[in-house]
Amino acid sequence: MTPEFWIAHADSLFHQIFMLFMGGLYALAMLVGVTYQTMNIYCYFIFYPASFALFLESKKKYWVVAATLLFFAIPNLNSHCGVFFKQCVAFLNYTAKIFNSNYIDMSVYLCVWVPLLLYVPFVTCTHNKQQLKKLGIIIGIVAVVYMIVIYPFFKPALEYVWKNQHQWVKS
After folding, report:
1. Element at 52 (helix H, strand E)
2. C-alpha pair distances (Å), 141 with each of 70, 74, 85, 146
3. List of residues 6+ apart from 3 with CB closer than 8 A
4. Separation CA 161–CA 149 (nearest Å)
5. CB-side exposure of 127: number of CA atoms within 13 Å?
6. Which of 18, 7, 4 lies closest to 101, judged by CA?
7. The predicted structure's pLDDT at residue 168
8. Which residues have C-beta within 8 Å of that of residue 47, sequence separation ≥ 6?
9. Rounded to an integer, what distance in angstroms lies between the CA atom of residue 156 and that of residue 11?
10. Beta carbons of 92 and 107 less than 8 angstroms apart
11. Distance CA 137, CA 124 (A)
């Protein structure tokens, strides 16, 4: 998809959520020195499931999460993840057809909302009501600030960056 596509659809909340997560994964991939596809597979199929160990009472829970870094020691990791990533894209496109939707919306539903919802029972069982109330207030404030400050200006900001990128590169 081209930058023009992303800009044209940047007024959609689901496109914005997708772009924010995609941007975060690209940034992590660059920091670690792997491809976007590799970071995507790591986050959703290795780290995310292992992160449930953080809700265990065992003192070994941090070793489980730390052990996920062994993933990056796999030989030819980027090529293996590239193949697996293509299968994931095919699955999202397939489910999009079933639900009369599109790849981006299915990505947000299955790769953002479902994982967040799966954390709810763990978070509610491991925190007291006061902590949950504070967490709810923080989430509410972040959501309101996003909807007031970022959501309406996301598309104009992308347009501005796209139009002025050549000026920054020359500097």
Report:
1. none
2. 37, 41, 34, 8
3. 162
4. 17
5. 15
6. 18
7. 60
8. 65, 68
9. 9
10. yes
11. 15
Cα–Cα distances in angstroms (integers) from residue 46 to residues 34, 50, 58, 69, 135, in the given order: 15, 6, 20, 9, 26
Q: What is the pTM of this model?
A: 0.85
What is the helix (H) or strand (E) element at residue 53, kind and residue range? none
What is the per-residue pLDDT across 28-84, written as a single tens digit (0 to 9) for each?
A: 999 999 999 999 999 999 999 999 888 888 888 889 888 999 999 999 999 999 999
Q: Which residue in the block uniquely carries the two structure tokens 């070994």? A: 60
Question: Comparing C-alpha atoms, which of 6, 13, 83 is closest to residue 41?
Answer: 83
Q: How far apart are CA 91 and CA 127, in angstroms?
A: 35
Residue 150, CB half-sphere, CA atoms under 13 Å: how many? 12
The residue among 24, 17, 16 whose CA lies nearest residue 43 is 24
d(C-alpha 149, C-alpha 167), whole Å:
26
pLDDT in tens, 103-122: 999 999 999 999 999 999 98
